[in-house]
Amino acid sequence: MPHEPSSAHPAAAQTRTPLPRIAVCGIHIESSTFTPYVSTAADFDVRRGEAVLERHPFLAAGSPLREAAAWHGVLHAGALPGGPLDREDFEAWRAEILEGLAELIAGSEDGPPLDALWFDIHGAMSVLGMDDAEGALITAIREVIGEDVLVGTSMDLHGNVSPALFAGCDQLTCYRTAPHVDVAETRERAVRSLLDALAAAPVGRPAPKPHRALVHVPILLPGEMTSTRVEPAASLYARIPELAAREGVTDVSYWIGFAWADEHRCQAAVVAFGADGEAVDAAALELATAIWEARHDFVFVAPTGTFEECLDAAIASSARPFWISDSGDNPGAGGADDTTGCLAALAARPEIRAGEVTALLVSIVDPETAGRAAALGVGGRGEVSVGGRIDARDPGPVPLHVEVEALDDSPATGVAAVLRVLAPTGGESPTEPRPSEPQATGLQVVVTSRRAQFSTEAMFARLGLTMTWADVVVVKMGYLEPDQHAAAADWMMALTPGGVDQDLVRLGHRRIARPMLPFDAEIPAPSAADVLR
């Protein structure tokens, strides 16, 4: 749990004049190296200056934490998970961050030029042609700000903690829930840890650096096997508050690691930090050992099968709505968001084609089809080919005759359209020639011009949809997010192919450390010799 909020940070206010100076910067994206999609600056929300701070309600103007320090937003770029980031865009942002920090330091007229830096990142960013992009970024930042500046980072638990990232950061913490319902809490915890350390420093002196411990555990699992909704992750994360509350320990964190990047740094990690080196080492090793002991107990968060098996179960079930997760193409983990195996199967299913079963597929990114739908307008009918433009694996683009039922345009989705799939009155497949006037089937498909995830009720509502209307709802997700989970009467996870395939062995990692579960039958137990300080 975070520290209780207070009206001010009295220690900082009483011992420091002027207030401590804290810079904020970071690049936040989760990147699959197995997807053909390349992320570029166009995918990101890029903020500078005051706008960097406005991302966080706890740093709102006039709030206690805002008043406790002189905050300086440098640059923050954040995006939906995708493929590796374009190298040129990364280099431009890195240069801007380094230049901004150098200017901030040079412009200091009194007191230390910079007391602390909050490195606000995801932890699973990949950049074309680079290894360990976050480690390289913090290393470059250290060359500008020096070793005395206190650096804290808050991360997604699906990030990676490389030795370089660990060396560059003094305080590291990550989410403790998956699905992530503690994002703001984690970020605030990171900020409070920085402020607490600064408040304890003598006037005019750098904050003392905490003792740190990193233990890697060579396990690489998808988030869908490590959700905190189920065991053993639920119990492992439940141990953290007690470990972090021990005398001499400030925080303990457990990173699952990122399964869909083929990089040496990708594996589970435990980090602890605090004032007592022995207590910190013991806490990190204790949690790492508990993870190792549970290494063979991780299972998928829901029943699984091929998409065809999941669709059979959904149609046969009395539970409505029955949700199916197209997990191999989950854009929330970096999937392309446009594989079409599920679409083709839904369109060919006799019960859906006849309208006996209603089905909704949300969503496929296809700017061409979204633009065509906008040109047709609501009520317009036409021929389209949907999906398969980024990840062109079989069956590729699916030709359909559709009627446009709704249109929207938002920053999250770009142009979005609800398409009703039509079929000839003769009953032929909707992908075959249509000799007669087509009639509505039970299938609706949402297409967007930007990669997107319809994870909230509000996103469905923008298109006049609900999460509970259709008999079968197919989403490009891994585990279901809270709104989705609440709406589903039952659900299964389809183990579909794609850039974030749940079958990691099938993906073909070549550069990860070995031995590593599940690629090898066994791994050694962590020991004191494995603790990196």
Describe the structure.
This protein is of the alpha/beta class. The chain is 27% helix and 23% strand. The longest helix is centred in the first third of the chain and has 20 residues, at 87-106. Residues 1-16 have low confidence and may be disordered.
Concise account of the structure shown:
This protein has helices spanning 10-15, 50-53, 64-67, 87-106, 133-145, 163-168, 183-199, 233-238, 240-244, 277-293, 307-316, 341-348, 350-353, 367-376, 457-462, 482-487, 504-507; strands at residues 21-28, 44-48, 70-79, 116-120, 150-155, 171-174, 211-217, 251-255, 268-274, 304-305, 322-326, 359-365, 381-386, 398-410, 414-424, 438-448, 472-475, 490-494.
Question: What is the typical, i.e. mean, pLDDT?
Answer: 94
- C-alpha termini separation: 25 Å
The secondary-structure class comes to: alpha/beta
The backbone outline, from C-alpha atoms, is globular
Give start-end ranges of low-pLDDT stretches: 1-16
Helix content: 25-40%
Portion of residues in beta strands equals: 15-25%
Overall number of strands: 18
Instruction: Please state the oligomeric state of the protein chains shown.
Output: single chain
The major sheet is characterized as: 9 strands, mixed
**Count of alpha/pi helices:** 17
* Strand order in the sheet with the most strands: 10-18-11-17-12-16-15-14-13
Radius of gyration: 25 Å
